[in-house]
Amino acid sequence: MQAQLIRRRARRRLGFGLIALAMSLGAGSPSFAYTAYVTNERDNTVSVVDLGKMQTVKTIQVGQRPRGIVISPDGKFLYICAGDDDIVQIVDTTTQEVVGDLPSGPDPELLALNKTGDLLYLSNENDALVTIIDVKERKALAQIPVGVEPEGMGVSPDGRIVVNTSETTNMAHFIDTEKHEVVANVLVDSRPRYAEWKSDGSEVWVSAEVGGTVSVIDPVKHVVIGKITFSVPGLRSEAIQPVGIRFTKDGKLGFVALGPANRIAVVDAQTHQVEKYLLVGQRVWQLAFTPDQKYLISTNGVSNDISIIDVSDLKVVKSVQVGSFPWGVAVSPE
Amino acid sequence: MTSPCRFLPRARGLALAICFVLALTGANPARAADPTEIRIGYLHLLESKQQPISLLDEPNEDDGIAGAALAIEDNNGTGRFTNQHFSIEDLRLKPTEDAASAAKSLTDKGIMLIIVDLPAPMVLAAADAVRSASATLFDVGAYDDSLREENCRANVIHIAPTRSMLADALAQYLSWKRWQRWLLVTGSHPQDALFADALKRAAKRFGGTIVEERIYKDTGGARRTDTGIVQTQRQIPVFTQNAPAYDVLVAADESNVFAGYLPYRTWDARPVAGSAGLVPTSWDPAHDSWGAVQMQNRFIKLAHRRMKAIDMQAWTAARMIGEGATRTQSADATKIIAFIKSPGFEVAAFKGQKLTLRDWNLQLRQPILLSDGRNVVSVSPQEGYLHQTSELDTLGYDRPETKCKLN
Hints:
The structure holds two protein chains of two kinds.
Chain A: H1 2-14, H2 19-26, E1 35-40, E2 45-50, E3 55-61, E4 66-71, E5 77-82, E6 87-92, E7 97-102, E8 108-113, E9 119-124, E10 129-134, E11 139-145, E12 150-155, E13 161-166, E14 171-176, E15 181-187, E16 192-197, E17 204-208, E18 213-218, E19 223-229, E20 245-247, E21 253-257, E22 263-268, E23 274-279, E24 284-289, E25 295-300, E26 305-310, E27 315-321, E28 326-331
Antiparallel strand pairs in A: 1-2, 1-28, 2-3, 4-5, 5-6, 6-7, 8-9, 9-10, 10-11, 12-13, 13-14, 14-15, 16-17, 17-18, 18-19, 20-21, 21-22, 22-23, 24-25, 25-26, 26-27
Helix pairs in contact in A: 1-2
Chain B: H1 12-24, E1 36-45, H2 65-82, E2 84-93, H3 99-108, E3 113-117, H4 120-130, E4 136-139, E5 156-158, H5 163-176, E6 181-187, H6 190-205, E7 209-216, H7 228-239, E8 248-252, E9 272-274, E10 279-281, H8 292-303, H9 309-328, H10 333-340, E11 368-371, E12 376-380
Parallel strand pairs in B: 1-2, 1-3, 3-4, 4-5, 6-7, 6-8, 8-9
Antiparallel strand pairs in B: 10-11, 11-12
Helix pairs in contact in B: 2-9, 3-4, 5-6, 9-10
């Protein structure tokens, strides 16, 4: 804790030259000192949350209606969809300022980065296109026509396939990342919003917000092999609206954010059975792990906070207030 | 048959590449063949010449059908991947023309799925005329409860909400506001009385009291007069004078004769709701929640105007047909309708939850927006109105009350 404080003061007072020294001081701090970056849809800001202190330590002004957010593998840059400004903004995590933007095409909402961090995939909802961006060159490499209102983006672990979901067409489109073409289309339930691959590449899960289900897709055969349904006693079925999905690295557990059901479903990723529902804040959108997977973070749109979940205990340990209408979340790699 | 690539997006340069991609991909072996055609009939009236009170409410020639056209585009977006193609057969009638023979002319061409934007008697005539042909109508323009109750038909699916659904949606909100004493002002036309009946029922259901009902008689006359505003300013206060104590003036004026003149002109300083002021509706050009902005943008791009309730109702009808065709992988109207009527059917329509069909009268369940003409003020059902099946069934006639017998 102390070390972090020193680190921040050092940055502020002594400038860039001394950061290396400060970082070496920081190395002695507890391993749990990650930073979470949360986009606040209504505020046009990103909240910087110190996960050691479990509190918001800074607010960065960004473009209008920020939603999708990813962080580069080295943790140096954030890429943020500022949908109403029709751009993806680049935020330098050291200076915590917007340093540039990427040619996203209109109304970007969600994006995904490949493992090496050089290619960005994003959906343009208004134009039914997926845009591939060369991050270093800051230019669009290709645009691929998909279904109506594309949204979710999931890159396969080997980077060869990107799965895009289209909300009105109700499909998961499998896109070959080298050939830039759609190779398969899989019909899922209404308003699919998010696609997530298991780390071994064996399954893709696609959440259908209006349908209230998660389709488990075999990415080789391109067929739905299972459908996860949710039911919370006392809650009307229409309120169960799955959005964000995350898997543990060992592939044993899946976590599904259930929107206005205010819960995260914990799913046995092998049997596809729901094990538990965790009560979080209101209107839960997206999820992100800390890199050590000790904690899972959820953005709770209506209650203006994030919930921090202890993954081994499967318990919500803390709520942290952020900005207005938190939507997306990314966590620093270290 | 046309190429499956003809409906591809604006980017012409890309189109060729995409066709090439489609041709190459082996994921759908049927793709090599021509797409299966699904034709949807659209039966509606010639544009009304009646002038609305506000210029902003003037009818457009493509009211309704523009929404269906957008849904066709959306369906074809999906059809690109499923090798289906959708199109509309547009048929316009004069109010005096025979809806039965018009509907028959469509079924004679093999069109068994027909969207109808017609008044209730014409809907019934059309439905009965095409029943033997096993055609199904999608009612997007008639709000009459009678069509879903005593006059319900097994071959009519209702997308338009009923007057009772609209009235209940408003009453739930007024009750939440504790504006429980209503001054009801009803127009002198039959449809005004029907809406007033729905409002009276809603008041009873949700704790409102109608302190007095006044009838506003339609004495005719032009809407556009150079200095009409001077008289209106004097007439409305007098008309609303000497009312018992009330919280809100509720107007039943489907004929658009007077309600538009009420706000800011009542004798007592009271809000107006119903046919003016706070209006219950299935869609509003300002609705921007639950992804609706994308819908609004796509509609403006296509129609060069903003999206009205009738456009949304027609969009939803054509999307339901699209869903049926996609999910059943069939162009067969019987299979599509069987799917739409099945318990698993749902459609997403930017209302924050799935819309489903009431199996007892084929009415689409839907949240109702409450609009002040500039913004969406609230969306009903209001929180706290619980129901054992679906909270959407707190709006309108519920299963135990229904007079409908489908056969």
